[in-house]
Each structure stands twice: as structure tokens, then as C-alpha cells.
């Protein structure tokens, strides 16, 4: 999640952890949670998730589904203070966890999740020139 085991911190630098794949969907999820997991997985920017992030993604999934249910109850009974407090508390936790996965525009910008830079023809030519120069220098020095 953004900067902590996610692959990108606030300065856009990688965290050095291995790109070991995506977390496995936990068994035993109900249909709503399973659908939410799939939806979240499709929305999280590439390069963020690691296998170890499954527990936090599962927590976020369950909280999103729970929040949807609490929202329906709160809307049906706006004067239910306990339900409204539970819904707002849930929404706050979901917002915080979502940010760790880069699920808002602000979080994605802060994480500097951008498309890979495409090398121009001039940049490629210069890089190749420098590589040839370095190779010749190493050959002269007997390396």
C-alpha cells in the first residue's frame, strides 16, 4: 500500500520488494465480498500489490461490503444515531485503506503512478553512444 510494501512511496520510488504476483482470493468469501474483491483488484494500479497484501485487501473488501449495508440501513433510518456513527466510522476506515492501494486520484498522484517513459530516438541514440564509449574504455583498461 502506498509506500509501505506497495512498490511505490510518496516520491514514486520503488520499495525494492519482489514483484511476486497478486494476492490469492481468500476462500469462504460470500458473493458480495467476492464480487467486491474482483472489482477492487481490477481498479488497483499495476505494480502496487504483492502476495502479502492479501490480508489488507481482504479487510478492505469486507469493510466496503459492510459499509454498503450500513449505508442502506442509515438511509432507511436517518435518525438512527448508532447506525450513522457506525457507517461514518466504516467510511473513514475504508477511505484510509483505499488510499493505501492508490484508489483515489490524489493517492495515485502522490504515489506517482505513471506510464513507463518511452525513450525517444535521440535518447536511444545517446544511450547507445554512451554504452559503446563505456565498453571501449573498459576494453582499454583490461576489464
Describe this structure in words.
The protein has about 140 residues and is mostly helical. Helix content is about 60%, strand content about 0%. The relative contact order is 0.15. It has a domain of about 90 residues. Helix 2 packs antiparallel against helix 3. The N terminus is likely disordered. The chain is built from five helices and no strands.
What form results from the Cα inertia axes? elongated
Order of helices and strands, N to C? Answer: HHHHH
Radius of gyration: 23 Å
Mean pLDDT: 83
Regions with little confidence, pLDDT below 50 for 5+ residues: 1-13
* Class of secondary structure makeup: mainly alpha
Total number of helices = 5
The major pleated sheet works out as: none
Beta percentage is: under 5%
User: First CA to last CA: what distance?
Assistant: 42 Å
Which short descriptors sum up this protein?
mainly alpha, 143 residues, 5 helices, elongated, disordered N terminus
Q: What's the short version?
A:
The chain has 143 residues and is mainly α.
List the helices and strands and how they pair.
Layout (H helix, E strand, L loop, with lengths): L30 H13 L10 H23 L4 H20 L4 H7 L9 H20 L3
